[in-house]
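TA notes, week 10

Several of you asked for a full example with nothing omitted. So below is the full record: structure tokens for the whole chain, then the designed sequence directly under it. When grading your own attempts, check the secondary structure regions first.
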């Protein structure tokens, strides 16, 4: 069975934040060391606690209670970290784990970030982003671009995976999703006229009934997108954003602050090129109406 990178990523993020809390804590006026936490947990060596901060394992209920009390966590910090621990431990049974033996591990990691994010911003160049695709649109893209390397079964599993990703919109607090796309993505008749008309209808529904913003870079803009990437932002000031880049064989990720600043700047430039959401919606409606007459 493939390594559950989604669970691993959650452990690492939890461990990093726990370490920040420990380094800020004081015991008898002095910083709290890993050995002191380990001793409070009843261990002679600090290795068990060190593994928790490195994201290699989760603290059990008994250990977690002792850690919270020793580090003197305020109520907000304790609830936030406890929630991360509970949610992270539950990832082992998350819906996407059933796909982890069939798709690149980086894609499974990407989906776990998407599911946990407070906001998702996507620059998709001349394609409707996967999260906003209909089943038939996704099937047409996958089957045509990978017809010599992908079996019919795997195509259908890919479509199923994309449709299940849309479950984020049904969560109690769904993420804010923003997609910046080139106008060509709306004109390309992926799958044929009927499939594209349905896809445009899905975009209209997402923009008007869900927390989705679509910005279209029009043909008359002075430039257009040449990259396909995503920016995930999470709840809490201590949660660092993650950028993801689509590749032919999987996803790559960037977490360094300097690189994230560059991504934000690129997004701002793309927004400047794009039409406002209301004008973008009108373009999509007009194109759907035109397709319906064909």
């Amino acid at each position: 069975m493939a390594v559950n990178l989604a669970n691993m990523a959650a452990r690492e993020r939890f461990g990093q934040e726990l370490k920040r809390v420990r380094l800020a804590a004081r015991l008898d006026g002095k910083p709290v060391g890993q050995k002191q936490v380990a001793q409070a947990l009843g261990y002679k060596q600090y290795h068990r606690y060190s593994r928790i901060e490195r994201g290699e394992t989760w603290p059990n209920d008994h250990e977690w209670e002792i850690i919270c009390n020793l580090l003197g966590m305020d109520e907000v910090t304790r609830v936030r970290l406890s929630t991360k621990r509970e949610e992270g431990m539950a990832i082992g049974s998350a819906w996407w784990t059933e796909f982890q033996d069939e798709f690149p591990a980086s894609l499974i990691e990407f989906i776990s970030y998407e599911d946990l994010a407070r906001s998702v911003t996507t620059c998709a160049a001349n394609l409707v982003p996967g999260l906003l695709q209909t089943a038939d649109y996704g099937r047409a893209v996958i089957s045509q671009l990978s017809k010599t390397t992908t079996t019919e079964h795997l195509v259908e599993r890919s479509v199923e995976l994309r449709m299940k990703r849309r479950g984020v919109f049904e969560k109690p607090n769904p993420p804010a999703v923003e997609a910046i796309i080139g106008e060509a993505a709306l004109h390309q008749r992926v799958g044929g006229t009927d499939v594209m008309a349905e896809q445009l209808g899905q975009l209209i529904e997402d923009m008007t009934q869900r927390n989705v913003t679509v910005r279209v870079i029009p043909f008359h803009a002075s430039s257009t997108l040449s990259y396909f990437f995503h920016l995930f932002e999470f709840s809490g000031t201590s949660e660092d954003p993650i950028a993801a880049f689509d590749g032919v064989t999987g996803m790559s990720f960037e977490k360094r602050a300097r690189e994230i600043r560059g991504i934000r700047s690129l997004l701002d430039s793309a927004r400047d090129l794009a039409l406002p959401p209301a004008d973008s919606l009108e373009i999509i409606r007009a194109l759907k109406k035109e397709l319906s007459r064909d």
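The chain has a mean pLDDT of 90. Use that as a sanity check on your answer.
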